[in-house]
Amino acid sequence: MRSLLLVVLFPVILSAQAPLEPPYSPAPDSVATRMLVDMRSLDSTLVIETRYATSNNFTGAVLPGYHANRVYLRREAAEALVRVQQRLRSGGMGLKLFDGYRPVRATVGMMDWARRTGQEHLFADGYISSRSRHNLGLAIDLTLVDRSMGGREVDMGTAYDTLNETAHWANATGRVLRYRQLLRRVMEAEGFAQYENEWWHYSFEVAGETPAFDLEVR
């Protein structure tokens, strides 16, 4: 019986200790400048609160590469997000953006924080990745706001960047679930895909090359 248990458990142990992939090697800043677009330049009605340019985030500090309250995305994703905003506007709702394109150095900063604070489990749990679609300008973190109430955030059940299972998309009931369903419905209608572990996180697929970037957010 003991030998059988060892056979069963050994692959699990190996999997848990598998090393992370190295962070992306970024494309030149000139490529990033050509491919990324400032969301505010496309739609001034979007509410922008770039959390990683402040200490109001899970690390408690400004992340490397963030210097301004701006959100950038690849143009294809940016134009799709504007269409989402237009869909919501007719119902008195709107979007608030927390993060979009993320410099590679910021992802490295998140990884360093996790290791320094003994939070390495966040890698295996799927909350911090060495290679994020944010680095490609093809992921967005966002929530809904009620425009009839001055753009106030609606109740989505947890705060942004809650790094545990309470923030899983399906862990909601009542009005919270209806708000999450609304956000998912309008986002998926414009080609975004929801990440089940984080109700705020959506990604976008594009054809062709998808380089990563390390251009500073200014």
Pattern of helices and strands: HHEHEEHEHHEEHEE
* Form type: globular
Helix content: 25-40%
User: What is the CATH architecture assignment?
Assistant: 2-Layer Sandwich
Could you list the spans in which at least 5 consecutive residues all have pLDDT below 50?
A: 1-17
Termini, distance in Å?
61 Å
Structural class, from secondary structure content? alpha+beta
Q: What is the level 1 CATH name?
A: Alpha Beta
The tally of domains stands at 1
What this model shows, in words?
Helices cover 34% and strands 15% of the residues. With 218 residues, it is α+β, with helices and mostly antiparallel strands. The protein has a single domain (24-204), classed as 2-Layer Sandwich (Muramoyl-pentapeptide Carboxypeptidase, domain 2), CATH 3.30.1380. It is globular.
Short description:
This protein has helices spanning 2-16, 29-35, 39-42, 75-89, 104-116, 121-124, 174-189, and strands at 36-38, 47-48, 72-74, 93-99, 139-146, 152-153, 192-194, 201-204. With 218 residues, it is an alpha+beta fold. The chain has one domain (24-204): Muramoyl-pentapeptide Carboxypeptidase, domain 2, CATH 3.30.1380.
